[in-house]
Amino acid sequence: MAEPILVVDFGTCFSSAAVVSGGAVQLIREPASGSFSWPSAVYADEGRLLVGSLAASRRNRDPARWRSELKRYLGQDDAIILGDRSYLPLQLVTAILTALKTEADRAAGVSTARAVLSVPASYRRADQRRTLMITAAEAAGLSPVELLSEPVAAVFAPVIGPQPKAGELILVYDFGGGTFDTALVRIGDADHAVLGSDALDDCGGVDLDAILASRLAADADRWLPSALSAIGGQGIQDTSLRLNVTFGEVAHSLKHQLSDTTEAEELVLPGAPSAHLSRMELTLLTTPLLDRTVECCRSLLERLEASISEVSAVLTVVPCQIAISMPT
Q: Is 0.70 topped by the overall pTM?
């Protein structure tokens, strides 16, 4: 029987895992939500670390004990304070990987040891974050551990649209939760050649949400100061943290609403004016961020001395699916 392999896509916002054994693939559901996507979040609760949906569900109870986007802290020396305890980023990443392995072992009925983890293209050979990801996985009980670049993993995934043909040049466009990754790939009959890749560490969905949240906070200036001053004492800080969480949640909701409509509305707080956002406003707010991703792709093509006319298609990575589109 083939050795089972735990494959983990450790994302900035969400993570997912699957057990691969003998050609069969079993996706791992999160017990708390039943979803294949696990929030990459932790919450310090009475000396224990909750992860995933359990952590996310408690963030409004005490935002100072909650943290997400853990991958962005990896490589930093400063400890992360959660409530009255401090943790190294490595410990928090390990906690999520441990939960993924534990559930994978239970669901698949086998003990997984070997693992493959996807990492951003910016994690180059000498990058200490590669070593830290391996260390976290080993601390979670996984060994040996292999790392796979995220845009490379995308090339081997099933696609929506025309299937790439041998000899074609494909440009991978992966706008993730916390990073943007791109790669130029030559499609082969049985294997593919990655000609080069590039990435932006500070350009992803969370940055887009931050832009929208800042806009919401600015719009709330007319009623927010009086609401905070009415609380007084230590409550101001606690309320400020909760409002930051709320603005982030509302921004995320408005963004997703605009996938299906041209006008979005969301309640911020009871008794406060609702937040409104149009698709045109979203476009204007996020264009500078998306322009950076286009420039990153252009720079990669220039470095590899390839023209856009040589690219057969763009492989656009979205959650749970990958779409092929023709370049323009």
A: yes
